[in-house]
Specification:
- The chain is α/β, with parallel strands linked by helices.
- The protein is about 45% helix and about 10% strand.
- It has ten helices and six strands; from the N terminus they run βαααααβαβαβαβαβα.
- It has helices spanning about 15-30, 35-45, 50-55, 65-75, 90-100, 110-120, 145-155, 165-175, 190-195, 205-210; strands spanning about 5, 100-105, 125-130, 160-165, 180-185, 200.
- Helix 1 (about 15-30) crosses helix 2 (about 35-45) and helix 8 runs parallel beside helix 9 (about 190-195).
- It starts with a strand and ends in an 8-residue tail after the last helix.
- About 45% of the residues are buried.
- The mean pLDDT is about 95.
- Keywords: Hydrolase.
């Protein structure tokens, strides 16, 4: 059976979640909104429009959502030339590719942001395809990003495993009918990942790589 290993990117393969938190917090502050950083952290992984709606609610002026997203993008863009891959990220993708898995990225990032993330991972030769925010109408926790990744790989849900670091990732994977693996390197607690659908949880890509034989990707 054809197999696909589908990966979220931010917080899963590249250590960017707290950079996103800082950029969103500053974007909200500049617009006059006081949003605690811990609340922003919990929302990271949602598409920009959904994150704003989730944190500010129905009382906000939705006509200003675009300004907030643009401010976050500009603030976060300052880090593009130095985004740090998480330990073992590139090595994990290369190992899975060598073992016969099709490696597909499923991320809310697109354009120059996605290019910067891929440069950080430095494993382009192992990546079969990418399902980015530019390719789907709904982001996680909708199943659409994962389903699109499976379409690109030509793999059925039962032949796929989705690896992510947020509750939104686990919910998207479960809704797409795939097995889910959670990583703690994005800062979300193990219990939250398991409750959202993670079958197994590891510290980071290096830990998953070292435990590969006994993991859902073994």
């Amino acid at each position: 059976m054809e197999r696909a290993a589908v990966f979220d990117v931010d917080g899963t393969l590249v250590d960017t979640n707290h950079l996103h938190v800082t950029a969103w917090w500053e974007a909200f502050r500049q617009a006059g909104h006081r949003v605690p950083m811990h609340a922003v952290h919990r929302a990271v992984g949602l598409p920009s429009a959904d994150l704003v709606a989730h944190l500010l609610g129905d009382e906000r002026d939705p006509d200003r959502d675009g300004e907030l997203s643009a401010a976050h993008k500009a603030l976060y863009g300052q880090y593009f030339d130095r985004l740090p891959a998480l330990p073992g990220a590139g090595e994990l993708l290369k190992r899975l590719h060598a073992d016969g898995w099709q490696v597909v990225l499923a991320t809310s990032a697109g354009g120059s942001e996605l290019s910067a993330l891929r440069r950080a991972i430095d494993a382009d030769e192992a990546i079969t395809a990418t399902a980015s925010a530019d390719d789907v109408e709904q982001g996680k926790p909708s199943a659409e990003p994962v389903e699109h990744a499976l379409e690109l790989a030509g793999v059925a849900p039962e032949g796929a495993v989705f690896v992510g670091d947020t509750v939104w990732d686990m919910k998207a994977g479960r809704r797409a009918g795939v097995r889910c693996v959670g990583l703690l390197c994005g800062g979300i607690p193990r219990a939250d990942l398991e409750e959202a659908g993670a079958e197994a949880v590891y510290a980071d890509p290096a830990h998953l790589l070292a435990s590969l034989a006994d993991s859902p990707l073994g």
